[in-house]
Design goal:
By secondary structure, the protein is mostly helical. It has a single domain, classed as Orthogonal Bundle (Double Clp-N motif), CATH 1.10.1780. 61% of the residues lie in helices and 2% in strands. The protein is built from ten helices and two strands. Strands 1-2 form a two-stranded parallel ribbon. α1 crosses α2, α2 crosses α8 and α8 runs antiparallel to α10. The longest helix has 17 residues. The radius of gyration is 17 Å and the shape is globular. It starts with 6 loop residues before the first helix and ends with a helix. InterPro entries: Clp_N_dom_sf (IPR036628), Clp_R_N (IPR004176). This is Peptidase. Pfam families: Clp_N.
Length: 184
């Protein structure tokens, strides 16, 4: 599949690896891919972020991702489903943090065991996002996978990253229009 990735799409993948290394994360996640996309310049995804105003609100995007990490990586849908059965995630986070300190429920805090290689692997969800980017490209009739296809895949897959993007106006439809115009 990677042979179909354009230079820009490959830059997203290597940028995600760099993001994971910078934060000492043991794995590469969708969040790392989003941050790599936000760092890209002169690409279709950078244009989409700019036209949607997301780039101007990067701090807010990062705060949204951090808030989701505080909730143990739960998406809005997860939180709402638990609320329907009477579980208040915000209250649980508050109690856990009161007892164990801020960020105690945060995800990504695992450190590789001693003696292990520092090679980072993509999480199953991140792998599925890369697979989804191929489906998006094929569905559009494109022969190559671009950074824009990766961005669309991030908006299409349910979870924290798509929630945060949607909260900032980056729904699948809005991103698709910003990337490819009204006809999509």
């Amino acid at each position: 599949m990677f042979e179909r990735f354009t230079k820009g799409a490959r830059a997203v993948v290597t940028g995600a690896v760099a993001q994971a290394e910078r934060t000492a994360s043991p794995e590469i996640t969708d969040e790392h891919m989003l941050l790599a996309l936000l760092d890209s310049q002169g690409t279709r995804s950078a244009f989409a972020f700019t036209s949607l105003g997301i780039l101007d609100r990067r701090d807010s995007v990062e705060a949204g991702l951090a808030d989701a990490r505080r909730r143990g990586g739960m998406s809005h849908a997860d939180t709402a489903a638990l609320a329907e059965i009477g579980i208040d995630v915000a209250q649980i986070v508050s109690k856990v943090e009161g007892a164990h300190g801020e960020g105690a429920m945060g995800v990504g805090g695992k450190r590789p065991k001693r003696g292990r290689t520092s090679h980072k692997k993509f999480t199953p969800a991140a792998k599925k996002t890369l697979e989804q980017s191929l489906r998006v490209a094929v569905g559009r009739g494109d022969k190559e996978i671009t950074d824009g296809h990766i961005l669309l895949a991030l908006t299409a897959r349910p979870g924290v990253v798509s929630d945060v993007l949607a909260d900032h106006g980056g729904t699948y439809g809005a991103v698709e229009r910003a990337l490819f115009g009204e006809r999509g």
